[in-house]
Design a protein that fits this description.
mainly beta, 2 domains, six-stranded antiparallel barrel
Length: about 325
């Protein structure tokens, strides 16, 4: 018998190269989908990952073999206290992309904002809003500058996260009025999302540090008698090209990457944390104190990490309906 060459599929996906560390512990959203809704609305929200539980619900997907039956689903609890709208930012479209025209800040921002940036003596919001009003025909989009309120959640920190959230729906004039009305106010999650709605989840995954190619790419451990290395890739590539190609599995950073997961369904939005907190609290988190969002399935990131939610970029064709939850487990998860 002649020697048969072995063929095997590539180990690991090249989809997300380079697998570098995220710039910061909470993500930046670069794309906000267009919305056909008539009234202006915020296109995103954020909260802190508390942990997971499971729910019993009536299966409402018409094509499912379990349609109409009671099924069990894993679910993630995100504690989402109301966000504070600190500012409005107006963008104009230029040949070089979107550029900021001006921004208006609330007159008396909270003291906690000083932990994020150095505040000026006085914000002149009136002039900035007047400039926006005069240039409405030039403005392409509005975004609000929002901060989290970790003091309201069960999070052991005081420093808020500062993010931009785009306004979608309606005309530019309606968006401007909507943003002006929001300035300086808090927005709870139920004003942004509805139960049963699909959202995109954007977060920074759990960091694993520097890992070798076996753990990072899933390559095979070489036989015991192998020379030089066992947990390395067997060949680094051909003679030509005379370099190690990017597609060869190598050691490097694993985890702590920014990831977007599409079309996660919101099962429930509530403001009474006791109805969702397991006995003894969530492991490494504790009880839910503020509003919460219950999401079907898992989300990236470690406990206590900021999770950003966005209107779906590629939503399903079916119209979302509020799910029929029969039971939400509050049994302790310790040791399971």
């Amino acid at each position: 018998m002649g020697h048969r060459k072995k063929h095997a599929p590539k180990r690991g996906s090249l989809s997300f190269l380079p697998r570098g560390r995220a710039k910061r512990i909470y993500p930046r959203i670069r794309y906000w989908p267009k919305q056909d809704v008539t009234a202006p609305t915020l296109l995103g929200f954020m909260g802190y990952k508390a942990g997971m539980t499971h729910v019993f619900m009536i299966e409402d997907r018409a094509g499912s073999p379990n349609y109409g039956k009671e099924v069990v689903r894993p679910a993630t609890v995100i504690e989402a206290p109301p966000i504070l709208i600190c500012g409005i930012r107006a963008y104009v479209k230029t040949p070089y992309g979107y550029r900021t025209l001006t921004e208006a800040w609330m007159e008396t921002p909270p003291k906690d904002l000083e932990r994020v940036l150095t505040l000026p003596e006085k914000f002149n919001a009136e002039n900035a809003l007047k400039k926006m009003d005069e240039n409405l025909e030039k403005i392409a989009k509005f975004r609000v500058i929002a901060i989290t309120q970790p003091r309201l959640a069960n999070i052991p920190k005081k420093k808020s996260e500062l993010v931009e959230i785009e306004i979608g729906g309606g005309t530019i004039e309606e968006q401007f009025q909507y943003a002006k009305n929001l300035l300086g106010k808090t927005v709870p999650p139920e004003e942004v999302f509805k139960e049963g709605q699909f959202v995109d989840v954007v977060a920074v995954t759990k960091g694993k540090g520097w890992q070798g190619p076996v753990k990072r790419w899933g390559i095979k451990i070489l036989p015991r008698k192998s020379r030089k290395t066992k947990r390395g890739v067997a060949t680094l590539g051909p003679w030509k090209p005379t370099r190690v190609m990017y597609s060869v599995p190598r050691a490097g950073q694993m985890g702590f990457h920014k990831r977007t997961e599409y079309n996660k369904r919101i099962l429930k939005i509530g403001n009474n944390g006791e109805e969702i907190t397991p006995k003894g609290g969530f492991i490494r988190y504790g009880p839910i104190k503020a509003n919460y969002i219950l999401i079907n399935g898992s989300v990236p990131g470690a406990t206590k990490r900021l999770i950003r939610l966005r209107y779906p970029a590629r939503p399903p064709k079916t119209a979302p309906e509020p799910p029929n939850l029969v039971y939400i487990s509050t049994e302790p998860t310790q040791g399971k």
